Amino acid sequence: MIKIAIDAMGGDNAPKEIIKGCIEALENEKCKATLVLVGKEDVIKKELQKYKFDQTRIEIKNANDIITMEDSFSAVRTKKESSMCVGLHLVRDGEVKGIISAGNSGALVAGATSIVGRLKGVKRPVIAPLLPTKKGYSLLVDGGANVDAKAEFLHQFAKIGSVYMEECLKVKNPKVGLVNIGTEVEKGNQLTKEAFKLLSEDNNINFIGNVEAREIPSGDADIIVCDAFVGNVILKFMEGFGNWVFSIVKTEFTRNIKTKIAALLMKKGLTNIKTKFYYNNKGGAPILGIRGLVVKVHGNSKAEEVKGAIFQVEKFIRKDLVKKISAKFEEE
Amino acid sequence: MIKIAIDAMGGDNAPKEIIKGCIEALENEKCKATLVLVGKEDVIKKELQKYKFDQTRIEIKNANDIITMEDSFSAVRTKKESSMCVGLHLVRDGEVKGIISAGNSGALVAGATSIVGRLKGVKRPVIAPLLPTKKGYSLLVDGGANVDAKAEFLHQFAKIGSVYMEECLKVKNPKVGLVNIGTEVEKGNQLTKEAFKLLSEDNNINFIGNVEAREIPSGDADIIVCDAFVGNVILKFMEGFGNWVFSIVKTEFTRNIKTKIAALLMKKGLTNIKTKFYYNNKGGAPILGIRGLVVKVHGNSKAEEVKGAIFQVEKFIRKDLVKKISAKFEEE
User: Fold this and answer.
1) What torsion do the CA atoms of B42, B47, B48, B49 make, to the nearest 10 degrees?
2) Which of A100, B39, B47, B292 is at 20 to 30 A from A234, Cα to Cα?
3) Do strands B136-141 and B98-101 pair parallel, antiparallel, or not at all (unpaired)?
4) What is the ipTM of this complex?
């Protein structure tokens, strides 16, 4: 039986939407796991009273403190009784196979590293979100863990990402691209020039070379490698720019009676467009390279995203993702 | 009388669209300048035969070689007879006040630095393109010159950008934002942490703090400061992602008879949306911090962009932009 911990107190909509997402996941036959809700017991119990559910599939693990969005990443050292820390300890001690949190990203990465621990041979863990593309999804590594990266970290992210795409998204021989300012070999800053060399020399990954940011949406590279600063810029710019484009489209569609009729005629099309970019229901972003499954969902996640992340973590566990990543580093 | 050199051989559509843009600029009363077309004399003469124009306002400066898009930036050292190098020498020797090129960016930055030369006190030149935002335009510094930047370069870019926005876009006390992975002071990589400190300490610029990539489209910061690697990622991702969004919108609008009617009803709205993002007619991106005006236009520029860049350079010259930037560094 698979057990997954849920940080019931993390994120902007905790505990309400987090717990709602758990209940909705349990109601879906895709989910076979038991969920361990970590947080203030009385708060969780009160929230659970709203729902009918299979009592045998929800457990509560009390944790009196909360790491907030404003806390520094070092809160994982000072707030040991927080829902995040208590949950990460459950992973470390093998009481659950994974944890999902919508809480403070920096703290979650720090806690994943210091409490759960890195896999042998892995120098840095990596946050691995999926980006929507023309062809489906590409994996962005690093989406937020290491802002001052070294070339050898980027090389490891490519290896970890390749395992993920092969095992979890069934992409055969996934193509790895290095985010760079030009496609030519000699292009880039010091970091990407060194990383290019390491990636080229590794015959165990399918390195297709440099990828300009313009080409990321094409989906030609299954795995997009960059440091977390650049990864964060890509993720957040996509969000901000996308929201702006859609707000302008909305303004134009509501301008007058003619455009409102157009909106009605285009209703299905507009939904198609939104679905293409609204990818939160694909779940969260796993922190990979550690000895358990830690998945970060967006701070403002609603039940839908939490549910998606539960399905995702269960899939990762069934695929034995951690063990398969570990195997790649033991070979060395 | 203002003279501006035009690299007639640079870019994907040279010389045809470059020369067409020059003719169109001369036909517009906004333009009072004389244009010096630099390139192969016979090719330029042949192209000019297509048009009627005021012969006194076009000069030809012969240059037998061409720096191609495939050349390395060091081509400015080896191809001294190229249109780009000959044109840059005209700027250096004061025969023209500025030059516009759609050619190889790396070579143009290298040539601007080595042939025209940096202003006293300026450590690195910077490419400064305008980004469309909700409020109009923000200036991105660095859009492509220095991929391995130091904090002191970023500080200088903020100063240079402030002069540009005040003088050329009439923004009073323009707000400077530092691209970062969070808004809090302590966030960032080593480069942005150091740059934050320098920017905070400078009372002569209006530093508003860190700006997440998500907030760039809001236009709250008039000047967006980052290294050229990050700047390149922002510019190119915006281009690629924007093109993808519009291609999806197009697909949905042409799906069936209903959606095609919607497209007709929305015709004006769709043009409004495109205009908002199609900002090439605002001209090119100046390379600032050097002893003359060098403006880079997109490699695939058509006549429209070349014309816009000519208006822009003439404006820069009338505003005495180079001198005003220089003054900021002489004060030190």
Assistant:
1) 90
2) A100
3) unpaired
4) 0.92
Interface contact A265-B265, CB threshold 8 A: yes
Mean pLDDT for the stretch of residues B302-308: 93
CA B187, B193, B196, B200 torsion: positive or negative?
positive
Residues of B in Cβ contact (< 8 Å) with A229: 181, 188-189, 192, 230
- A-chain residues within 8 Å CB-CB of B248? 272-273, 276
Contact indicator for A11, A104 with CB cutoff of 8 Å? no
B15 touches B8 (CB < 8 A): yes
d(CA A233, CA A237): 6
| B282 pLDDT tier (thresholds 50, 70, 90) | low
Choose among B120, B122, B116, B114: nearest CA to B141.
Answer: B122
Check CB contact under 8 Å for B148 and A189.
Answer: yes
**Residue A138 distance to chain B (closest CA, Å):** 14
Query: In degrees to the nearest 10, what's the CA dihedral of A233, A235, A241, A242?
Result: 170
d(CA B265, nearest CA chain A) in Å: 6
CA distance B295 to B9: 15
Q: What are phi and psi of B209, to 5 degrees?
A: 100, -165
Please report residues of A whose CB lies closer than 8 A to that of B186. 72
Give the H or E element holding residue A84. Answer: helix A83-92
Helices (H), chain B: 16-27, 41-48, 75-78, 83-92, 105-111, 151-168, 190-201, 228-253, 257-265, 267-277, 303-318, 321-330
Cross-chain residue pair A216–B134, CB shorter than 8 Å: no
- A–B CB contacts, 8 A cutoff, strictly below: 156
Residue B165's pLDDT is 97
Residue B251 confidence (pLDDT) above 80: yes
B36 or B269, greater pLDDT: B36
- Report residues of chain A scoring pLDDT below 50: none
Q: Most distant CA pair in chain B: distance in Å?
A: 66
Residue B183: pLDDT band by 50, 70, 90 thresholds?
confident
- Is-contact A217 A180, C-beta < 8 A? no
Token pair, residue A148, equals: 């001052």
Report which DSSP code applies to B95: S
Query: Number of C-alpha atoms within 13 angstroms, CB side, residue A315?
Result: 18
